[in-house]
Design a protein that fits this description.
Largest sheet: 10 strands, mixed
Radius of gyration: 43 Å
Strand content: 35-45%
Helix content: 10-25%
Number of strands: 115
């Protein structure tokens, strides 16, 4: 085809790929364009293929794209699906039965295609009803049964009202008839209570019947029964009532209601009671009722679980109604959430309102309908409302008797199990999709099929086609080239067209590939940086297209081939204009309100006097509302009064009024207004509405008549004044002449209205109502209070406000009493006796800081007398409008933390100090204060003389958990100062929740930008409640910054598409003018941005306004030396010392320098950096100074930086001058160096422009430009970011590029390059950073199983050691297998898309069936390898107490179908313990948990069993465990080998001078030697020097241990609880175990709590943390908890007391990001405090560089736990000394500066010794002398980092000697025991090799080598430590290998 045809094809290919790359949505067709025609059609819906031979575009693409590229429409190959309705019978509402239409549909789908189907359903008003009442018959329900018997007639009337075709039945239940649920004494089995029946589990008393008289007659015969524990066996009864369809009498076409009445909680599967009663068999979900209706399998089967009940009731179309009392109401509220449709009603204590509860519940259920679907795997279904909104869980509100309509969306998957759907089997891609309401038996049946079309043209290919130049086959119009040929038409040989660079130059291009890429074969350019350069010759730069608002292509398109290609819906040169006019629609749906035109998505309005919105409507919201904006014009036009009564002024009003006799209703107009005319005291009324025809766009109608008060009596005033004067004169005369007149005078004065106390104070309004969104942000309300009467004098009014006054006394939340000892915040407000300045409004200003410190100091001094009080915090300052004559004074708001019970004391103390006018030394204004809690507040306000009204600033206590409508009451209490009386005493405030679809808010309330930034990008976030479209308007407002002077004002509407959560609004910042630049003391420039007018159901959130501060001064540059040392030789003509600057290189900067300690000169000078200059040299010529140039050392120092510069960390540098002349001369003579290739000093200059780019997960390519001259080579240093540079790897290369390999994936690396010559290394480049690409993650950590029952398990796993990126999901697959590990059933798959939930509860597994469990992780790259394990639950012990619902853990049902398998359940709170139980349902202790996960091994009394588990990824992957009763035995078997040599005195049999004996050593957990099973101490393993033959020992304890035997001469031993241990030839082992048991025995007083377990941290934000723990075991009641925390590097210890034992979590606020905190939690009982549980945690978050303690808004945050040093390794050097070694922490959370080692005796005694070890080596050791033999010691090693001290690594060690003598004694026998802190999930393999020979120094001289291999994911690290090695004639060699797998 020629050269230009080849170029054309390349250009078209690149253009096409770029065009499609810019598509907003994923184009599945484009993804398959390079494949075959059939694969193209199978790629997805809408895919088309072009077989034209001359077509040069993408052959596989959307049909419209192919047509646009020139393909013939007739030639295009496509595929189409079909849909037909096979049976559609209309709904007949006259038939009183459930109906659905259509009934039968056929659909075919292309992969990824979805179809919508309209469905109608009908439920009759009084359809058939089956009502079954299931009642608790325990003794506590006796009065409830009496009431139910008396309600027979009312019950009949109720069911008759509900349905004309009904049946009613009755069942009763108690609990399992076995211990401990039931008292099994014969007398109690006969009659547990007086006048009662024998206990039973469940009985069907009355089968469903329509005969009400029969029902009432049978019910009268029933008597109460009884049991022992509080929870009842109601779950057994519910399941039997559901599955026994015939015996209960359920009818197939009726609505099934089951009323469950009780006052107790419930038992559930494996809740502990079944274990104690010996019932382990799982419920089989079958009917087991005898002819009398009794449940027969109650003592043979367990209770059903919650997911089982959900599934069984759903399968049988039964809706539960839980009618329960207040004692258990909250439990059933949580249980209700798991059912698609269910109701919970609150009964009175005697159930007298049960009929009312049933009626109310049924009315609620009648309007609800849940849609379910059963479908093949390749399809998914969704159900939508007619509006298109997705219905969660298929729930709809359809009214009975009316036809309900919804849409069903059926979609075919693109991929199944990561493979194309067309590769799946027919059973997965074809089948029936059955859709029905949960209460219907009828359904919509959709026969669905996935189409996988093929192309006919593939069957007729042209071999060696001329079109392909004979070098390929033509298939469907496309050439498939043979090997060695490339290009579209196979016309270019890869071997012959190698380097013709002219093919890579286009017109006007002077160098190949524009100098931006490599020229490859056939003229193809490969650009160096494809992310920036593109085009056939790399001639286009993607960053050089037009910008709008500072954004490239307005962020609404892509820069392609030099121009903007806009996304759909946008146009313009820079994509600045939306095509749609939806942004111009006004509130009536018109365009720009008819008063403008829509240009580029904005309304251009005609000018108007009133402010306009962005859609040309009157902007009343910006003008204080419609009424306030129109008031003056209406008053002047209608009545010629008011501010504009002058005719000339009134004529300027932009609209005209119309007087009417009757106004429109307020709902029909924009606003309805009323005002009082000041001139005649009359009230006038009018309405305002938008109008497109009226003048000014407003229609203002004014009511013709005013409302005026009665006629005035002003003419009486002169007469009254005359009479009063006359009366006063008469009284004065009487006073003088008559004593009795004094009394009369006083009485008369009291009768005068002007002389009595006539002042009244009270609230202005009776009731105020708001939406929550209107008051949620300030959370306060200024409530107006008025004063009438003479305004002379001062009145102080005390007030209080109470929250939630609408709740009755019997309301469940009102009955919850707060804990009086709980520490809560008390907001306090005072008015200071000083004026508010503008500086105080800025929290960071100097004035505000000084005043805050003064306020805090004085308030803390006053409030310190309150017990338990904390220091005040969060002090701010403000002013309050409408505060009388004090509104310019400072109001101080602060928060005081104290116990709740101290509220009255705080109020009293505050009032006392306010009255005195002083808070210690702080002057305050008397008469004003506020003190609040979280539910009430008290305060006072002051009416000064002449003040008639002011506002009371009351808190509103707005919380997310508020009721939908709550009411507060403000009360004026009294007037302690003044003569006024209380008038209107109360005002009620109602706050209604506005259930918004979205909430708009700024991320924070203030931002700071520099003018140098040019643009201030303000983010606006959207919290989605109900997804869909949303819109909000924004605008900027001047403050101290002015529009067009400091910034350019912006405003408009911001539409959000479905799913969008955040957008940026750019605001252009202007440079300073010359005038402003000359001003000193310039005012801080600020402007506001507001959010207004949210639409589509949205509301404004926390920050509807943000303030932007414009910083005039740029950030100063940082200047420092480039290197801390410089080296030159005496032969160098000059010394050039480089100085660099960082930060803000756009401005000039200056700094001075000087020499120090130089021998021949004392120099100084100035260094000036020009704009954009980042490096300068200080040049010193040594020959300019007297004396010869000699080797010397001197320093240079930088000082006195200019105004725009600061000094960096390298302020000094050392200059080393060496004698280099002879060496240089010699090398020059022999020709080794060329002086032109070196710097003036002879050293090579630094390479230029280093560039690093990740080329793969483990590779980085580094390029640089060579320095001047010809260096001999380059040295590349690279290291992991955060590691010291001294640990860098050095790579020697000869060319200016390097390929760094064998790197870690997704890891940050730093690197630098230097050139070298014969003189050595030259100057280094700056550090270059690069991150490797992500790679697939490694396998997850070891699987752990918590066996709940033989059919229920909880599986957990750890995060992969090598995540290689960010984990996004996990996949769990479990498969039944046989003994050969072959599958015997279908595999089940569960996808968990929350990477934090690494735990899964699986139910309904097959009994006695072995399962293989596989878990893998996924990141952006894809899925990693599986971690697998196999386990048979039937052979495992179960937990004594476990739970069916675990918080935040997915629960799946192994027996359910595909629909249920993907249904993950979660709960927000753990169900509490059964009543009367002292042990929590969620049990766990230090032994049972590891890193917050349940350990796989549990000890409990009762039964014995063994566990076998294999994990294929472990080198020692078999764990054999045994469980015993009595002693709580747990054993782990490991293999041990002894090699015996000649000369041993131990009497070992040898074969031929040496022998091999293989023995199994039993390694016991420390708890096995005790008669208890639950102890919170560390696991430990004993390793000892043991003889090679053993004897069996006797039994142990009450239960004892049996002796185990083995073909490999396995030994076992047992220990006696009474008396001393028996000695044998294995005395060392017995002694070691005895000592270990003695060492680890913790003396604990009975009743003292254990350590709280399962300490869990949850980050709530970058500065907030939730700390949770599990209730510890305790013999007595827990009274409360204490939480202590402080920073690891020191600081004040904070203490929180939790006095409510039911609360096991606290929320900590105001933490510092990126700081490590140490937390301690302990529990308290009557006996005292228990031990502490410790944890260290860090919240990592991006931090604002301008405020080191403030996180960047919106930045992600993660939890990070600093790690402890590596495992401790002990080595005995002598009986009184040892060597301790450890590894550096893997995650030190900072640079390690050293270590602190503490040593103390385990049981006390002696001093605590501390050692300092400095340095940061990978392996550190310490020799510890002066120890005492046979005494256990505890060592702790703690790393000291730049962030403080990290967590400790602990170890316990004892140096033991058999006879207590010295180690060098010839007759001694030494034993070394190590105690390791082992993870609970660990595989260990220990090999001990021994050679016994004679030794002149030791009796059994010893060389001991410990090798520890740690395997973590894909990285294996070997650490070998030579412990003791001496020159010996003979000795014992002990080698220990321990494999720890995490």
């Amino acid at each position: 085809m020629g050269r230009w045809a080849l170029r054309l094809s390349v250009v078209l290919g690149i253009l096409t790929s770029l065009f499609i790359y810019c598509s907003a949505d994923v184009n599945h067709c484009f993804a398959a364009r390079t494949k075959s025609c059939s694969e193209c059609l199978q790629a997805g819906v809408g895919c088309a293929y072009c077989p034209d031979e001359t077509f040069n575009g993408p052959r596989c693409d959307l049909r419209e794209n192919i047509l646009a590229h020139g393909c013939s429409a007739a030639a295009i190959i496509t595929a189409a699906s079909s849909m037909s309705i096979d049976r559609e019978e209309s709904i007949n509402i006259k038939m009183q039965k459930s109906q659905i239409t259509p009934q039968q549909v056929s659909m075919s789908f292309l992969p990824g295609e979805e179809k919508l189907l309209d469905v109608e359903v009908f439920a009759p008003v009084k359809g058939p009803l089956d009502l079954y009442i299931l009642m608790d018959f325990s003794n506590s329900m006796a009065d409830d049964l009496v009431n139910l018997k008396n309600l027979g007639a009312e019950l009949g009337s109720l069911v008759h009202d509900l349905s004309d075709n009904y049946t009613i039945g009755f069942g009763k239940f108690v609990d399992k008839v076995t211990e401990p649920q039931t008292d099994m004494r014969p007398i109690k089995l006969k009659q547990p209570w007086p006048d009662s029946t024998p206990p039973f589990s469940f009985k069907n008393v009355i089968k469903l019947t329509s005969d009400l008289s029969f029902y009432n007659k049978e019910l009268q015969k029933e008597k109460i029964s009884g049991n022992l524990d509080a929870p009842e066996g109601g779950f057994d009864a519910i399941l039997q009532a559901a599955v026994c369809t015939d015996k209960i009498g359920w009818r197939p076409q009726s609505t099934h209601l089951l009323v469950f009445s009780t006052e107790s909680t419930f038992h559930y599967e494996s809740d502990g009671m079944n274990v104690l009663s010996g019932i382990l068999k799982r419920n089989d979900e079958a009917c087991h009722l005898d002819p009398d209706g009794f449940y027969t399998e109650d003592i043979a089967q367990d209770y059903p679980s919650v997911p089982t009940l959900v599934r069984v009731l759903g399968d049988n179309n039964i809706i539960p109604i839980f009618a329960v009392t207040n004692h258990s109401y909250t439990y059933y509220q949580k249980l209700k959430e798991y059912f698609p449709i269910a109701e919970v009603g609150l009964l009175t204590d005697d159930s007298s309102n049960i009929l009312e509860v049933m009626k109310k519940a049924f009315e609620s259920i009648r309007s609800k309908m849940s849609i379910r679907s059963e479908r093949p795997k390749a399809f998914e279904t969704q159900f939508l409302k007619t509006s298109g909104e997705i219905a969660n869980y298929g729930a709809f509100d359809f009214k009975p008797g009316a036809i309900g309509k919804f849409k069903m969306r059926v979609k075919a998957q693109h991929m199944l199990d990561e493979k194309p759907v067309c590769e799946a089997g027919k059973d997965e891609t074809e089948g029936n999709v059955r859709v029905r309401p949960s209460t219907f038996s009828e359904a919509v049946n959709v026969q669905a099929t996935v189409l996988c079309p093929t192309c006919e043209c593939e069957k007729a290919s042209v071999v060696a086609s001329p079109r392909c130049h004979g070098n390929g086959d033509l298939v469907c119009g496309k050439c498939q080239c043979y090997d060695g040929w490339v290009s579209t038409f196979c016309n270019c040989s890869a071997s012959s067209s190698s380097q013709d660079t002219s093919l890579c130059m286009g017109q006007g291009i002077s160098e190949p590939c524009s100098g931006r890429g490599d020229c490859m074969e056939c003229g193809q350019c490969v650009c160096y940086n494809p992310d920036q350069f593109e085009g056939p010759y790399c001639q286009y730069d993607k960053t050089q297209c037009l910008r709008f608002g500072g954004f490239l292509c307005n962020d609404r398109g892509s820069c392609i081939m030099g121009s903007c290609v806009c996304t759909p819906g946008w146009e313009g040169n820079s994509c600045e204009c939306p095509i749609s006019n939806t942004t111009c629609l006004d509130t009536t749906g018109g365009i720009c309100n008819g008063r403008g035109k829509c240009v580029c998505g904005r309304c251009e309005c005609t000018t108007g006097a009133l402010g306009m919105t962005s859609t040309c409507e009157a902007d009343f919201q910006g003008l204080l509302g419609a009424c306030e904006a129109t008031r003056t014009c209406v008053q002047c036009q209608a009545w010629q009064t008011g501010e504009k009564k002058e005719q000339a002024v009134c004529d300027q009003c932009p609209y005209r009024i119309v007087k009417v006799d009757e106004l429109k209703e307020p709902e029909a107009v924009l606003d309805s207004c009323s005002f009082r005319d000041e001139e005649d005291d009359c009230t006038y009324y009018y309405t305002v509405d938008n109008s497109k025809t009226a003048v000014g766009g407003l229609e203002v109608q004014v009511l013709e008549k005013k409302e005026c008060p009665p006629a005035s009596l002003l003419w009486l005033l002169p007469l009254l004044l005359f009479l009063l004067l006359l009366l006063a004169l008469l009284l004065l005369c009487c006073w003088k002449y008559c004593g009795w007149c004094q009394t009369c005078c006083a009485g008369c004065l009291a009768l005068l209205p002007c002389c009595r106390k006539g002042r009244m104070v009270g609230f202005k309004e009776d009731h105020l109502a708001f939406l929550q969104s209107q008051v949620a942000a300030p959370n306060h309300l200024d409530t107006p209070m008025v004063r009438t009467g003479p305004p002379k004098g001062t009145d102080v009014v005390r007030w209080k406000i109470t929250d939630n006054v609408h709740r009755a006394a019997n309301h469940p939340l009102a009955q919850i009493k707060p804990n009086p000892k709980e520490t809560i915040p008390f907001p306090v407000s005072l008015r200071l006796n000083r004026m508010l300045s503008e500086a105080l409004t800025y929290p960071d200003s100097r004035d505000a800081e000084q005043l805050r410190a003064e306020v805090n100091e004085n308030l803390n001094e006053v409030y310190k007398q309150i017990p338990g009080v904390h220091k005040v915090q969060k002090t701010t300052f403000r002013k309050q409008k409408n505060a009388g004559k004090r509104q310019d004074h400072v109001i101080m708001d602060t928060v005081l933390a104290a116990p709740r019970s101290t509220f009255p004391d705080i109020v009293k103390l505050t009032e006392k100090n306010v009255q005195s006018g002083n808070f210690h030394n702080l002057r305050v204004v008397p008469g004003y204060y506020t003190v609040a809690t979280d539910r009430e507040a008290k305060g006072a306000v002051e009416f000064q003389e002449g003040v008639e009204s002011l506002d009371v600033h009351v808190p509103l206590f707005v919380k997310d958990q508020d009721d939908d409508e709550k009411q507060l009451q403000v009360e004026a209490l009294d007037v302690p100062l003044g003569i006024a009386e209380i008038g209107k005493k109360f005002v009620n405030i109602t706050i209604t929740k506005d259930h918004a679809t979205s909430v708009f808010s700024f991320l924070q309330d203030n931002y700071t930008y520099s003018r140098m930034d040019g643009v201030a990008n303000i983010p606006i976030k959207r919290d989605i409640i109900e997804d869909g479209r949303a819109q909000v308007s924004y605008r900027t407002l001047d403050h101290t910054a002015k529009d067009k002077k400091d910034y350019m004002t912006v405003g408009g509407d911001l539409p959000f598409a479905p799913g969008e959560t955040q957008k940026m609004v750019p605001v252009r910042l202007l440079e300073l003018t010359e005038k402003d630049g000359l001003l000193e003391d310039k005012q801080v420039k600020k402007f506001h941005m507001d959010l207004v007018n949210p639409q589509y159901g949205a509301k404004l959130g926390r920050y509807p306004r943000t303030t932007v501060t414009i910083a005039d001064l740029p950030e100063p540059s940082q200047v420092m030396f480039k290197s801390p040392t410089q080296t030159f030789s005496t032969a160098d003509p000059v010394y050039k010392i480089p100085v660099i600057r960082t930060r803000n290189p756009t401005t000039p900067a200056t700094v001075r320098w000087r020499t120090k300690k130089a021998q021949r000169f004392d120099l100084s000078g100035a260094l000036k950096f020009d704009p954009k200059e980042t490096e300068k040299d200080i040049v010193i010529n040594p020959k300019n100074y007297p004396g010869p140039v000699k080797p010397e050392n001197f320093q240079l120092e930088l000082y006195d930086p200019g105004n725009n510069a600061t000094l960096g960390e390298r302020r000094t540098t050392t200059v080393n001058v060496t004698d280099g002349a002879p060496e240089i001369n010699h090398m020059q003579q022999v020709g080794y160096i060329n002086q032109t290739a070196t710097s003036p000093g002879g050293h090579a200059m630094a390479p230029e422009n280093p560039r690093a780019k990740a080329t793969g997960p483990r590779t980085i390519r580094l390029n640089w430009d060579p320095p001047p001259g010809h260096p001999m080579g380059y040295k590349v240093k690279y290291w992991i970011y955060g590691d010291p540079e001294k640990d860098a790897t050095v790579l020697d290369v000869k060319s200016p590029q390097a390929e760094l390999t064998n790197l870690y994936p997704y890891c940050d690396y730093e690197m630098r390059v230097c050139a070298y010559n014969a003189l050595g290394d030259g100057y280094d480049t700056d550090v270059v950073s690069c991150q490797t690409l992500e790679d697939a993650p490694g396998e997850p950590g070891r699987l752990a199983f918590n066996v709940i029952s033989p059919t229920v398990t909880q599986v957990s796993w750890a995060e992969p050691a090598e995540t290689n990126g960010n984990i996004t999901a996990y996949e769990v697959i479990y498969t039944p297998i046989n003994d050969d590990l072959k599958p015997v059933g279908a595999a089940k798959k569960v996808n968990i898309d929350n990477p934090k939930k690494r735990m899964l509860l699986i139910e309904n597994l097959q009994t006695a069936q072995t399962y293989q469990y596989k878990v893998r992780a996924r990141n952006k790259v894809g899925w990693g390898p599986f971690r697998d394990a196999s386990i048979n639950l039937a052979s495992q012990p179960t937990r004594p107490l476990s739970i069916p619902i675990i918080p935040d853990i997915p629960i799946v049902d192994a027996e359910a179908g595909d629909e249920y398998d993907s249904f993950l359940m979660y709960s927000n709170e753990v169900h509490k313990s059964p009543g009367g139980s002292k042990t929590p349902s969620v049990s766990g202790d230090g032994d049972f948990t590891m890193n917050g996960k349940w350990e796989q091994n549990f000890l409990f009394p009762g039964g014995s069993s063994s566990r076998n588990m294999s994990a294929s990824s472990s080198p020692a992957s078999t764990i054999n465990s045994s469980y015993r009763m009595g002693g709580g035995s747990y054993t782990t078997e490991t293999s041990t080998t002894y090699l015996s040599g000649p000369g041993g005195r131990r009497g070992v049999d040898m074969i031929g001078g040496g022998g091999v004996t293989t023995t199994d050593v039993i390694m016991r957990k420390r708890s096995e030697t005790r008669p208890y099973a639950d102890e919170n101490i560390r696991d430990s393993i004993v390793m000892g020097d043991m003889p090679s033959s053993f004897t069996d020992l006797g039994g142990f304890g009450s239960g004892g241990f049996g002796t185990q035997s083995s073909s490999q001469s396995q030994f076992s031993y047992s220990l006696q609880t009474q008396g001393s241990r028996a000695r044998s030839e294995s005395a060392e082992v017995n002694q070691a175990l005895y000592s270990l048991d003695r060492v680890l025995q913790e003396a604990r007083s009975p009743g003292v709590p254990d350590t709280p377990s399962r300490l869990v941290f949850s980050a709530l934000g970058p500065t907030a943390l939730k700390v949770s723990w599990q209730e510890p075991h305790c013999e007595k009641d827990i009274l409360g908890y204490c939480v202590l925390y402080q920073q690891l590097n020191g600081g004040e210890v904070q203490r929180l007391n939790v006095t409510n034992p039911a609360e096991n979590s606290v929320v900590i606020q105001d933490l510092l990001p990126n700081h490590s905190y140490l937390f301690k939690v302990k529990a308290q009982s009557q006996e005292g405090w228990g031990p502490e549980r410790e944890g260290v945690i860090t919240i990592e978050s991006a931090v604002d560089p301008r405020s080191p303690l403030s996180p960047v808004p919106g930045s992600p945050f993660t939890l990070s736990t600093p790690s402890a040093p590596g495992p401790l390794i002990f080595t005995a050097l002598s009986p009184d000394s040892l060597q301790l070694s450890w590894d550096k922490p893997r995650k030190p959370n900072g640079d390690v500066l050293g270590y602190v080692v503490t040593c103390e005796q385990l049981h006390g005694g002696g001093d605590v010794r501390s050692f300092q070890v400095n340095g940061d080596s990978s392996e550190t050791s310490l020799t510890v002398p002066n120890l005492t033999e046979n005494v256990p010691y505890k060592f702790k090693v703690q790393a000291r980092t730049t962030q403080g001290f990290g967590p400790e690594r602990e170890g316990i060690i004892t140096i033991e000697s058999q006879d207590g003598g010295a180690l060098s004694d010839y007759s001694s026998q030494s034993l070394m025991r190590e105690v390791f802190q082992m993870p609970t999930e660990v595989s260990t393999r220990t090999n001990v090799s021994r050679t016994v020979i004679n030794d002149p120094y030791f009796t059994d001289g010893m060389t001991m080598t410990t090798q520890l291999t740690e395997t973590s994911g894909m990285v294996t690290r070997h650490m070998t430590k030579e412990v003791v090695q001496r020159s010996v004639v003979g000795g014992t060699s002990v080698t220990k290998k321990m494999y720890l797998e995490s």
